[in-house]
Amino acid sequence: MPANVRLTAWVSGRVQGVGFRWWVRANALELGLVGFAENLADARVKVVAEGTESRCGELLARLEDGQVGSGLRVRPGRVTSVTHRWADATGDMSGFTERLPAVPADSLTVIATNWHKAGQPGAVCLISAGRR
User: I want to staple 35 with a disulfide (CB 3.0 to 4.6 A). Which of 19, 48, 77, 114 is the partner?
Assistant: First the structure.
């Protein structure tokens, strides 16, 4: 059985807000890969996938040229470049997910708090992750 590899790809272009991460997930699952696709703050999408080298290579080809298998729809958005790197698989992932972007702590705003004394019902803290 071939050893698994890890593909990390950074996709540039109009790839956020167009269903691109969903498309990546559908293709990765079809290929039997595990990993994730996530939006980055700089408008790129980062794709991390683990599986056989041939299956990860097929996903990379689909990211680069938009060709799809098994009747999956045409790649959404517009890809202008794909940068990638190969590494050994870590084996620490299962399934394939669409991740939400990480929110920097300095962009969080406390909207309301309702703290209670010890022994009384719990505390409430609403936090907004909106841009400043």
Answer: 48
String of b and e for 25-42 (b: at least 16 CB within 10 Å)?
bbbbebbebbbbbbbeee
Q: Is 4 in the active site? A: no
Mean pLDDT of 34-38: 98
At 84 the three-state DSSP class reads strand
**Fold held by 4-101:** Alpha-Beta Plaits (3.30.70)
Residues sharing a CB contact under 8 Å with residue 30, sequence separation 6 or more, in sequence order: 69, 70, 72
Residue from 27, 39, 55, 62 carrying the catalytic annotation: 39
Could you say which of 6, 21, 25, 55 is catalytic?
A: 21
Name beta bridge partners: 47. 9, 37
Domain regions of the chain by residue span: 4-101
The H or E element containing residue 20 is: helix 20-30
Tell me what pLDDT residue 9 has.
98
Q: What tokens were used for 43?
A: 């408008």
Kindly tell me if the per-residue pLDDT of 131 is higher than 50.
Answer: no
The yes-or-no answer on residue 39 being catalytic is: yes
